[in-house]
Amino acid sequence: MQSKLSDIELIEQTLGGNQSAYADLIKRHQRFVFTLAMRFAKGREDAEEIAQDCFIKAYRSLASFQRQSKFSTWLYSIVYTTAMTFLRKKRVDTSSIDDEDTFIQIENKPSSYDENNVENKSRSYYLNQAIGQLLPDDATIITMFYKGEQSLEEIAQVLGIEANTVKVKLFRARQRLKEKLERNLKHEVKELI
User: Fold this and answer.
1) CB under 8 Å to 28, separation ≥6 — which residues?
2) Which SS3 state, helix, strand or coil, does residue 21 take?
3) Closest CA to 129 of 69, 63, 83, 189
4) 23 Cβ partners below 8 Å, 6+ apart?
5) What are the phi and psi torsion angles at 151 (to 5°)?
6) Per-residue CA distances from 73 to 103, 104, 115, 116, 152 (Å)
7) What is the C-alpha to C-alpha distance for residues 128 and 97, in angstroms, rounded to an integer?
8) At a CB cut-off of 8 Å and minimum separation 6, what does 145 contact?
9) What domains appear along the chain, each with residue ranges and CATH number?
10) Which of 29, 71, 134, 155 is the right S-S partner for 138, CB 3.0 to 4.6 Å?
């Protein structure tokens, strides 16, 4: 079964001509790629375009993947550069929140209706709303670190900066996120953090 294969094994099969192996790679990483794209584009259609462009670029460059880092790190660096190029072309206002409900639809898995689920969805909603108000660099670092579970070194590689710089940026991004949450929620922020 393809889904149990590692990223490297799927890459080898793709390079050997197995197109379904690349489809498995896409399925494995599409949710997070789309989430990162949403952090930049803010609109679902633009994020879908960015994500699609990323997977096309990754496919075309797959032979140049040198395996010095995880495939996901390499892929997320493509997302970052593609999104930056897209923003330059579109000249989008990156501080607006156009479609914050999309984050909830993507990141919340359907489950039974109970009190904890409602509370978790509420937390997720307010957290995503606050992340959406951050600058793209801050939102990207927070998303990659917490949701993508990327290490400081991996994020540094994607962004082309030192790991210590990522650590400082992550700290500052968390501070700005806290300020956004405090402003948005006032008294309820203590329960969220």
Assistant:
1) 3, 7, 10
2) helix
3) 189
4) none
5) -75, 165
6) 22, 24, 36, 33, 11
7) 10
8) 152, 155, 170
9) 2-192 (1.10.1740.10)
10) 134
Decide: 72 and 10 in contact? Cβ < 8 Å: no
Query: Angle at CA 156, nearest 5°, toward 56 and 166?
Result: 130
- Angle formed by the axes of helices 19-41 and 7-15, to 10°? 120
The distance from CA 47 to its chain's CA centroid, rounded to whole angstroms, is: 11
User: Token pair of 100, please?
Assistant: 């914050």
- Per-residue pLDDT tens listing for the chain (193 residues): 445 889 999 999 999 999 899 999 999 999 989 988 888 887 889 889 999 999 999 999 998 888 888 888 889 889 888 888 887 777 534 444 444 444 444 444 444 444 444 455 566 777 777 888 888 888 888 888 887 778 888 888 888 889 899 999 999 999 998 888 888 777 564 555 5
Q: Whole-model pTM?
A: 0.57
